[in-house]
Amino acid sequence: MVCLFFTTEEYSCEYGSLKFYALCGFGGILSCGLTHTAVVPLDLVKCRIQVDPQKYKSIFNGFSVTVKEDGVRGLAKGWAPTFFGYSMQGLCKFGFYEVFKILYGNLLGEENAYLWRTSLYLAASASAEFFADIALAPMEAAKVRIQTQPGYANTLRQAAPKMFAEEGLWAFYKGVVPLWMRQIPYTMMKFACFERTVEALYRYVVPKPRSECSKGEQLVVTFIAAGVFCAIVSHPADSVVSVLNKEKGSSALQVLKRLGFKGVWKGLFARIIMIGTLTALQWFIYDSVKVYFRLPRPPPPEMPESLKKKLGLTE
């Protein structure tokens, strides 16, 4: 992970300990819960563009129509399921990523973990997101209902019991498969890009120790390398999730066929702005939590000495 600050104090816990995982999960709660809640207005407009492009023709038009019909307060619709859902997702996403990264790294061994580190990041992040989406799915379903179905419900307390009465537990989890389709590629791109960008930054770009790297430099690299790519990779599935949670009786495949290639890219510009900003802020908050609690953060990976000897790179 990137180090935005430097401290010579002792670490507060051992790398890979239960306390380490718990505090990483806490950092995930803050990084995902706060950032996603902060951009609820943009997310609301994005979802409405996806499910009703005839009415909400663009970002600015979407904001204008929403404020005209619901007032400024209408832009905050869905904030509660967003906060609770993405807090739980962040707990699992960041906490389990650290768990799986260490677990898979130990299974591979030091040399293979270095040689296959990109695959390690991809596998660890995909495994973490699998569980994170199960935690997110109920709140995501409620959020989309509140934001895209006028008159259905205005709050989580109204939406949840109504959804359960109409469709039972299935109402909360029918979108989990397209959610995996959306979130797993996004998270794999997010973590792998971030890890490898950090490594490349210190190796080829920044001619100084990581302890001297400014916050601004890290945020710019993170936004470009992870945010934009993540948004593009995950957007088609995001469109399917939005439409699927609005409609009853449709399957992900049916929605995908009906939207077509052009339809699944509606709202992409809004998502790039939202996801790019979110990604940069999430890494900043997450790493700040690690620094505050003095968690150990290994430096960017370097080739093990044993592998250097095998490859004849040492005397």
From TrEMBL:
Solcar repeats lie at residues 19-103, 116-200, 217-292. It holds the Pfam family Mito_carr. It is found in: Mitochondrion inner membrane. Gene3D superfamilies: Mitochondrial carrier domain. The chain crosses the membrane at residues 20-45, 268-286. Keywords: Membrane, Mitochondrion, Mitochondrion inner membrane, Repeat, Transmembrane, Transmembrane helix, Transport. It catalyses: phosphate(in) + H(+)(in) = phosphate(out) + H(+)(out). It is a multi-pass membrane protein. The keyword Zinc does not apply. It comes from the Eukaryota. Belongs to the mitochondrial carrier (TC 2.A.29) family. Inorganic ion transporter that transports phosphate or copper ions across the mitochondrial inner membrane into the matrix compartment. Mediates proton-coupled symport of phosphate ions necessary for mitochondrial oxidative phosphorylation of ADP to ATP. Transports copper ions probably in the form of anionic copper(I) complexes to maintain mitochondrial matrix copper pool and to supply copper for cytochrome C oxidase complex assembly. May also play a role in regulation of the mitochondrial permeability transition pore (mPTP). This is Solute carrier family 25 member 3.
